[in-house]
Design a protein that fits this description.
Largest sheet: 3 strands, antiparallel
Strand content: 5-15%
Number of strands: 3
Amino acid sequence: MNENRLPTDHELAGWLADTSIPLAHRTLWRLLDESDVRIGELLNLNVRDLDLDDQVIHIVESREGPKAVRVTEEAAVDLQQLVGERREGPVFLGPTGSRLTSSRAAETFWSVTGRSLHVLRYGRLDRQRPNSTGRMPSVPHHTLARAS
């Protein structure tokens, strides 16, 4: 499998519906696909950064400075399930109950898809672009490494 090939809508829908994959990972994948938010920015989210009634996440730590990002209803539902009744702490928890790391997120995505997690950052918008090649845009390797 080509690790740089963008997933199709059908492939992504299948992964997001697969309940054998932890919800934290599926939610992260959905958010990466539907927004231009970086992996590290998402993994740094805390519960207090979520405004799920208005379908907004507040990115506090970003290269561009703080920003509010609108999410889909599906993402808001996933996030609500993920945080449950928690009012503080990391949104994305790993298996030990600590913050999910980018390396663990990348390993899980690779084990399920055989692809680099970075393909999702260019996901939906690139698949909708006319004449899309289905390949991740050429980005210097050091840029991709920093994104996680």
